[in-house]
Specification:
The chain contains twelve helices and no strands. The protein is globular and about 70 Å long.
């Protein structure tokens, strides 16, 4: 495990040797800052409308704005941003090693294939965790300005972490398959998007397929976390997703040594 952590730290630092790490963080902060500001402005507008209608004795006609619901939308938007950022984070992990010829050095070194896979995955996960940490001022602002429930905030971040880890494992798999970073990023985005939208046709399917498609889709599981629901089934889904993607990446790398 210590060798995997060494690889992870080396690859994590490499994100900031080139501009890619700074660009990813900057894009995330700018987008989330804009979306959070827009959500707050919309919440303020709805609050003023509710107060106005209440004074006119028409308050029952509209629902009072809910700060928790507003932040749920913010977390959902954060998930969409990660859908685009994950392929960029993972596209170079193994594809670049193969393109530069250093993959052979890794595979012939005393390192085990599993240590390479876990090291690369932990590097991407560390950058992703840093991105999540940089978003922590958003809920802090909410707690300073209002009184949102703590539970949905914590479970929402847990769901985003598991979802992001799933996308990173998927990206690592496609980075192991090809040496072209653009192809790896495109395949990662396409496959992640497929699991994002697969339940869109669930309502038109028969009951059996509706359950299967809904379970395979990432959205219902993430939605439960964002709503503050902790279900073992959702955790098992994400952990199984990560384990399967890492296992397949391990088999792809192992096939290169045979």
């Amino acid at each position: 495990m210590s060798k995997a952590l060494t690889i992870a730290w080396r690859d994590f630092r490499s994100y900031f040797v080139s501009p890619i790490g700074f660009v990813i963080i900057a894009v995330f902060i700018l987008l989330m800052g804009w979306l959070f500001t827009a959500s707050l402005a919309d919440f303020q507008r709805r609050s003023l409308e509710y107060v106005q209608y209440s004074r006119m004795q028409f308050g029952d006609l509209i629902q009072p704005p809910n700060l928790n619901h507003m932040f749920m939308n913010v977390l959902g938007n954060m998930g969409v941003i990660f859908l685009f950022l994950a392929p960029i984070i993972t596209m170079r992990l193994l594809a670049e090693e193969k393109k530069t010829g250093t993959m052979e050095l890794l595979l012939t070194s005393p390192l085990r294939t599993a240590e390479i896979i876990f090291g690369k995955f932990f590097a991407a996960l560390l950058l992703f965790s840093l991105i999540l940490l940089l978003s922590s001022p958003l809920p802090v602002i909410l707690f300073l300005a209002g009184n949102p429930a703590l539970g949905p905030v914590l479970t929402g971040y847990l769901g985003l972490f598991l979802m992001g880890a799933s996308f990173l494992a998927l990206g690592l798999l496609f980075s192991a398959i090809t040496e072209n970073q653009i192809i790896a990023a495109s395949l990662t985005f396409g496959c992640a998007l497929f699991f994002w939208i697969i339940n869109w046709i669930a309502a038109n399917a028969n009951p059996t397929w509706e359950k299967i498609l809904s379970y395979l889709s990432i959205i219902p599981h993430l939605g439960n976390f964002i709503r503050g629901l902790l279900d073992l089934q959702d955790g098992v889904y994400y952990l199984s997703f990560i384990a399967l993607a890492l296992f397949l990446a391990h088999r792809v790398l192992l096939s290169r040594t045979v």
